[in-house]
Amino acid sequence: MTERHFVVPEVVSTHFHLRPGDTVGDFGAGAGFFATVLSRLVGHDGKVYCVEIQKNLVEKLIDKVRREHLSNVEVFWGDLEEDGATKIPDESLDAAVIVNTLFQTEDRNLAVREITRSLRSGGKLFIIDWTESWGGLGPQPGQVLDKDEARAVAESVGLTFEREFDAGDHHYGLSFRKA
User: Fold this and answer.
1) What does the longest C-alpha to C-alpha distance in the chain come to?
2) Half-sphere exposure of residue 97, counting CA atoms within 13 Å on the CB side?
3) Cα(98)–Cα(2) distance, integer angstroms
4) What span, in angstroms and rounded, lies between the C-alpha atoms of 176 and 122?
5) Residues in Cβ contact with 102 at an 8 Å cutoff, skipping those fewer than 6 apart
6) Which of 76, 77, 79, 125 is disulfide-compatible with 176, CB 3.0–4.6 A?
7) How many CB atoms lie within 10 A of CB 30?
8) Rounded Cα distance, 58 and 75, in Å
9) How far apart are CA 34 and CA 73, in angstroms?
């Protein structure tokens, strides 16, 4: 019997194919679940922008960045559902990650459009979200955003679907590219 698992940043991030020197955005970064691994993957010459809307989580993330000396990580308070509010410059990211966040947005098209604005041509968007409402964790059953809906949102803002990847037993992972 295989061990069941949730999203493990060290495992899931291998699907991102990040290189030293890359610039990546973590949208809906929370308290920094992916911050350390992303920082390590892009190295000293790279940059990680972590964007979070909940002020208490922004403070926790800032503390984590200081405590772990993640000098290549910059934290922003920002709203994905407002044009330009993430504060990340246009076409500056090689990759963007949104984990367990898209299902929470009211205007998903606007949120994905805001992320896409920050991606350079050829940049990648990785969407990871819940496949189900599981054991009281994650979204309520009516809030689950299935992978077909997530794909439709990304494609509606001009992103090209590339592949699906394993993101854990209760999550899906989708990769998109900006033309």
Assistant:
1) 47
2) 27
3) 27
4) 10
5) 28, 108, 111, 112, 127, 129, 145, 150, 153
6) 125
7) 18
8) 7
9) 11
Q: What are the residue boundaries of the structural domains of the chain, listed by start?
A: 9-178
Region 9-178: CATH code: 3.40.50.150
Report the amino acid identity of residue 99: V
User: Cβ distance 69 to 106 under 8 Å?
Assistant: no
pTM: 0.93
Please write the tens of the pLDDT for every residue from 18-32.
999 999 999 999 999
**Cα–Cα distance for residue pair 125/41, rounded to 1 Å:** 16
The residue with tokens 């500056």 is 92
What order do you get walking across the sheet with 159-166 strand by strand?
73-77, 47-52, 23-27, 93-99, 119-130, 171-178, 159-166
Residues with Cβ within 8 Å of 104's Cβ and at least 6 positions away in sequence, in order, are 28, 139, 143
The 10s digit of each residue's pLDDT in 118-168 is 999 999 999 999 988 666 677 777 788 899 999 999 999 999 999 999 998
